[in-house]
Design goal:
Shape: globular
Structural class: mainly beta
Number of helices: 0
Strand order of the largest sheet: 9-10-11-12-26-22-21-15
Strand content: over 45%
Helix content: under 10%
Largest sheet: 8 strands, antiparallel
Radius of gyration: 19 Å
């Protein structure tokens, strides 16, 4: 139903799909999942600027800031100490900036590999699209390898930016009643690190807001929060879009990703002039903080020559 490779921008983009669901991946732009379409409706945040090559030190807000990227080995820019000395991790990590190499490709799946430059890590991601009577399913399997000679610290988060409209709803397991605030535009929810009630949260300047309901694009909202550590039965999150009759549901493995990052942006980011994001990102994560330099019980190290694997699934189902 699709051609496995579609020439765009003079390089090979990968188009896979099943039935009326198609996914476009751009290996040379950080393995970006640039498009997820169901019945000709685009689900991901559109590019804020033209799709162009990324540099090793550009901030994420100077890129197209769209689609679905992977954040490794940190989400926030930071400096860490390793057995090989001090290392600087750039904003949103390494792998969204580099050229991913193809491992395998078919009409329904694509496997790619990326090499970090700040740490000796290699990430492999296999993405497959299938169809069932209930809808469409994106199965993602990840493998991280330490190619170095010493143990390496790491953290990972998915970074899928889904387009939203006012009134769309974020669903979390009913047992979740609070989130930890990583950051909030204008400090509307308070200072970083505070606990915020879910779904109805208090505003710093008085009043309350329902965080589970998407607001209008002119709301000037940009908040990042975390849930977790999650327990059995809490390994899912969903975004319901009534206007297009679709539910986007993430399922993930608690052993690998016991935290869920939540980015809600309704015109509040980026701060530079120009178009703003209007999106929600459900981000299965290894840590409840954006910076690899912030240590805690969530901190992870991969031994030299060792690998670590984890799965994730996204179900696209009619509502």
């Amino acid at each position: 139903m699709t051609e496995p490779c579609l020439a765009v921008m003079g390089k090979e983009n990968v188009l896979i799909g099943a039935g009326k669901c198609s996914v476009t991946v751009i290996p040379h732009l950080g393995g970006k999942i640039a498009s997820i379409r169901v019945k000709d409706r685009e689900l991901l945040q559109a590019p804020l600027t033209p799709l162009e090559a990324r540099t090793r030190n550009m901030p994420f807000d100077m890129s197209d800031a769209s689609g679905w990227d992977e954040c490794l080995p940190s989400v926030a820019e930071c400096i860490i100490q390793t057995a090989d000395g001090e290392r600087k991790i750039p904003d949103h990590g390494d792998v969204w900036r580099v050229d991913w190499k193809s491992v395998a490709c078919s009409d329904h799946s694509v496997a790619l590999r990326a090499h970090c430059f700040s740490l000796p890590l290699t990430l492999e991601r296999t993405l497959a699209v299938t169809e069932s009577a209930r809808g469409w399913h994106l199965s993602l399997n990840y493998r991280l390898i330490n190619e170095g000679t010493h143990p390496v610290p790491w953290s990972w988060a998915a970074h899928p930016l889904f387009s939203v409209e006012k009134g769309d709803r974020i669903l979390l397991p009913p047992s979740i009643h609070s989130l930890q605030l990583e950051g909030s535009g204008g400090a509307r929810l308070g200072a970083s690190g505070v606990t915020v009630s879910w779904p109805v949260a208090a505003l710093k300047n008085g009043g309350h807001t329902d965080l589970s309901v998407a607001q209008s694009p002119d709301s000037d909202i940009g908040d990042k929060l975390f849930a977790g550590p999650l327990t059995e039965g809490q390994n899912w999150a969903a975004l319901e879009r009534p206007s297009i009759g679709l539910r986007i549901k993430f399922g993930f493995e608690l052993a690998a990703t016991p935290y869920l990052g939540l980015w809600i942006c309704y015109g509040g980011w980026p701060s530079r002039p120009g178009p703003k994001q209007v999106c929600v990102a459900l981000e299965p994560s290894t840590a409840p903080v954006d910076s690899l330099a912030k240590l805690g019980p969530w901190s992870r190290t991969l031994a030299a020559g060792q690998s670590y694997t984890w799965p994730m699934q996204v179900d696209l189902e009619p509502i």
